[in-house]
User: Fold this.
Amino acid sequence: MRRKIKPVILLLFFLLISATALCASKSRVKHLTSITGNSEIGRFGLLGGIFFDENRNRLYFTDTTNGTILAFDFDEEFKYISKFTGGGALTSPTSIVKDSKGNFFVAEPGKGDVLAIDMGRKSIKTIDFSAVYGANPIYPGNMAVDSEDRLYIADKANQRILLFDSSLKFEREILVKKSRGLKDIKVDSSGRIYVLSTIDGSICVYNSEGNLLLRFGTRGADKGEFDFPTSLAVDRKGLIYVADQHKNQVLVFNNKGRFLYAFSQLGWREGRLHRPSFIYINSSGQIFIVDRANTRISVFE
Amino acid sequence: MMGKENMYPHRIFTHYLIFFMAFLLSMIAVHGVDATGTEAGFKKCLECHPGIQQEMAQKGRHEPFKKYQCSSCHNPHASNYEHLVKDKISVLCKSCHKGKKGSFDKKYSHLPFEEGACLKCHSPHSSKNPKLLAERGKQLCFGCHADEEMFSKKNRHDPAKKGNCLSCHSHHTSDYEELVKKSPERICVTCHTVKNKKTEKAHLNYPVQGANCISCHNPHGSNRRHLIKENSHKPFAGKKCTQCHNPASSADPLGMKSKGMSVCTTCHPSVKDDFRKVNTHVGEGVFCTDCHSPHASDEAHLKKAKEKKICTACHQDTKERLKDKNNKHKHPSVMEGKCTDCHRPHGSDFELLYRTDEISACVDCHKRHATFTHPVGKGTIDPRSKAEINCSTCHNLMGSPYDFALRFDRKKQLCIQCHKGY
Assistant:
């Protein structure tokens, strides 16, 4: 009898170890490549936001210091395509998004504006905020566009999200209550709105009507708590990734807000992060991070 | 063969039993010869530590000490800790002193308590003072807090003058900042009534019930009458409350005349541009009062508190980093809490709200480094990140265990981060 039990115990032990290893390998995020400045495109300045055009497989990001939008095509590796300055119209661009019609929206917080750029018609317009009221003048932070081409703008000076319809008419606002330091916004394919506030380290998830569905996250030293969260992104499985500028890590949570794991650490070599300030995930699961103090875009998958 | 196999468990059990009995006997033997716990045993300790005899003569004695139980705190043979104590002082003390009803678990802690430095205030064996305190009353508190400017002011609050610190402050922990016993709105009215004509007149008939008195009055001392803080906002000094607030006779007397930052920027318009930067401290509502006092302050620019306190109120993780004793090398401005030496408090187009680009900001003070240093700036490349080399490539000014706040030990790891092959 004892002879029979021993192999069973060994087998169970082996299965347990294998399952643990499998889970660990599943959660592992692999560094793919880094995009850095070079003699061809020049040195990067302070990098702002990222947008990935799924239709064209093209990555766009802003160089705030140099007042440019850079474009890279992805075909096994990232290849530099072009630089756009808007004929000097861009001064300090930060966040960038694009709608399905090909219009770019770029935040210019220094001017308090969001620019709507139609590359085809070569026109740049300023979004009209005259219908928006608030205690403070609008400070446009990060932005998002949903599947219906509605534009969401995080207004840092009024702790709210401004929602514009596809014709750029102001629709309504979503107040991000009981939070401080509104920083980032993303919208998933189902229309759920994810909002990050840095000072209290909270993540609020709203449905497309703006009703709060979930609130989680706190700052602190414990596992799964934030030092200084700066940006968030959602993958196609609904996992929420939060870039922490002072932890130099990305913390991953499930769709209920339960902490799962973290990846990367402080460092200068590829795969490491130094003050990550923005995160974006495309539909193929590639994770793009503005690795600000390393002056590069780090790509993971 | 089968019979022999079946015997193994019995043998193992017998061996375990013998070993356990031997261990138990040895423990009893050791305990039996423990010198402490009896007066005779205590005398054994006295042979080498005669000084403790004097301590034993004190009126207030620590309970284990009184009972000659030296070994309840000390290990007579060996320890990893000073004075052969059994554990870190914080752990050792808290193994018996757990605090009443969660009194040790409040939001704010006295620094020695937080650091587990119980012996900064308490004597471990005995004391002539209650609660085994090393000193009595104000002598104890002023041992650390004597330098604080507020105690040397012309007018002083009575409890501060008499050194009755515990009238207002808790000694270990509190739910409120500065370890005050009650909320800022409730602490003063414990002794002072505000619902009287004199107080109402002094406040120009604006309601002050439920107000935070400490926002205008210094609870320790001031050179100004009524302990009003040293610097006043111009409208406050000129009693022109209606410049910002509704009239005292209105339905909402404390309501503001305008909304958001315009309450402040109407008179301080240039500040608006400070917040229109890529990195900004812009916030919700009248966010200026997050950092500035609208009425009176002891700090320059009517800052609500000392710079470090204001900044770390939001930058909590930086506060923890600054407290980390491993990071003993810090930039002098960091140690002095002068955050604005390097960072712009309103906004900046540079990373981390630096007042200019990082290298220029550093060489403003470190002039020699402008001409003689490791190559930095344009044309340099950190081979690890392919980014430009700057000062913070090698230095971590917020704190580091290494000389000159370097990121790595310069004798071992620093240079070979990039210069391989040595």
In short: DSSP finds 19 helices and ten strands in chain B. The first strand of chain B starts at residue 60 and ends at 61. The longest helix of chain B spans residues 2-32. The two ends of chain B are 65 Å apart (CA to CA).
